[in-house]
Design brief:
Strand content: 25-35%
Structural class: alpha+beta
Order of helices and strands: EEEH
Largest sheet: 3 strands, antiparallel
Strand order of the largest sheet: 1-2-3
Radius of gyration: 13 Å
Distance between the termini: 34 Å
Shape: globular
Pfam families: DUF1508
CATH topology: Double Stranded RNA Binding Domain
CATH architecture: 2-Layer Sandwich
InterPro entries: DUF1508, UPF0339_domain, YegP-like_sf
Oligomer: single chain
Length: about 60
């Protein structure tokens, strides 16, 4: 089974998304959005940005 995005309303009434791996662990989460549709657009943006994205090592 592939991972999935979940869109939910937080305690402050804002909408957020989280990306869960196939084992159910949260591997990424998004910022707070004013609307459910904006949170869905955030998911879509992450999907597009991650497609073919490189992994880079950066100094701390």
């Amino acid at each position: 089974m592939a991972g999935k995005f979940e869109v939910y309303e937080d305690r402050a009434g804002k909408f957020r998304f989280r990306l869960k791996a196939s084992n159910g662990q949260v591997v990424a989460s998004g910022e707070a959005y004013e609307s459910r549709s904006a949170a869905h657009k955030g998911c879509e943006s992450v999907q597009k940005a991650a497609d073919g994205a490189k992994v880079e090592e950066v100094a701390s």
